[in-house]
Amino acid sequence: MIPEVVAAGPVRLRPFRPADADDLAAGCGDPENLRFNPGMPRPYTVADARWWIAEGAPAARAAGGVAYAVVDAGTDRLVGGAGLSQVVPGRDQAEVGYWVAPWARRRGIATAVTRALAATAFHAGLVRLELLTHAENPASQRVALAAGFRPEGVRRAAGRARDGGRHDLLAWVRLTDDPDGPTPRVLPDLPGGRLTDGVVTLRRLAPDDVDPLYRLHTLPEVVASRVRQTPPTRAAIERRCAVAESEWLVGDSADFALCDASTGEVAGGCALVHDEPATGQGMVGYSLLPEARGRGLATRAVRLMAGWAFGIGFARLWAGTAPENVASQRVLERAGFRPEGLMRGRLPGRGESRTDTLLFALLATDHR
């Protein structure tokens, strides 16, 4: 039996009350909450809030789940909502959901609520909890990790957009016998948010980096080094920048903006792809805008990236270049990588052709 009131550190989970209507309308009407909760009415009015309090939330409990008001433990003011839905009794499974009002964010409320809600659900007999997030909602993904949920994969077209379209959702799962505490991350945040040697700065790729990244990846010489030798669309670059933090959080890749340390301007990009987790191996890639070339910036960036990778537990890094790309080979050699051989016909070329790749690698022991 799921209790009516749950303590969660700085907040408390309790049933909604008529006095919550104004704060409920203001919190659910926030643009960020509406963006990632397309099932909410838009605009969200006080009338909608009153309906939810009187009918929606009680119906959730009647269906086997629960919808809580999240309130400040000291003042009892509404600061969010949370609940369990999509209950599957045959699997002892439910889905966790939450939202936080704009006036209560950055206080750890969502994490405290999710932890308390998970403990309550497991005590009531559930054994598996799912938490589904939009790929462009890294804040919610950070809550999932902090509450002990693990990334499990992508639910293709599981989300319904407000315009009727569909989009993917990331699935995060916690089991009743999973250890307490945050889920360890393969790719932790950068110390202080960046890596720098005073000349080059690496930081996580961000949505504001679309313009320089699109210019970079549509250069003919950069297109020629892509796995498929066709230029990306601007929409594809926008998507890459929008989900870069998500890819980092789930441990798939660390996508960096390569910046001039003196100006902060984007000079190129580089990435560490966690391509073989079982062996501790990662793949390195990099490219520079024309005005940034010939200054050793790529070599500095690869050194910074390699030092960070080995510091967080990678054992081996590798990179591939076209046999004729002597400039890229020099970057790798200056960064300590050693040539290991030729991979014949590794990549698709133009038409039905295949292209060779020269393989370079750097071990953690080499780096030391």
TrEMBL record:
Kindly give the Pfam families that the UniProt entry links to this protein. Answer: Acetyltransf_3
One of the entry's Gene Ontology molecular-function terms is: protein N-terminal-serine acetyltransferase activity
- Provide the alphabetized UniProt keywords: Transferase
Q: What Gene Ontology terms describe where this protein resides (cellular component)?
A: cytoplasm
Under InterPro entries, the record lists:
Acyl_CoA_acyltransferase, GNAT_dom, Ribosomal_N-acetyltransferase
Annotated PROSITE patterns: GNAT
Query: Where is each N-acetyltransferase domain found?
Result: 11-176, 200-365
Q: What is this protein called?
A: Protein N-acetyltransferase, RimJ/RimL family
Give the source species: Micromonospora coxensis
Q: What is the lineage of its organism?
A: Bacteria, Bacillati, Actinomycetota, Actinomycetes, Micromonosporales
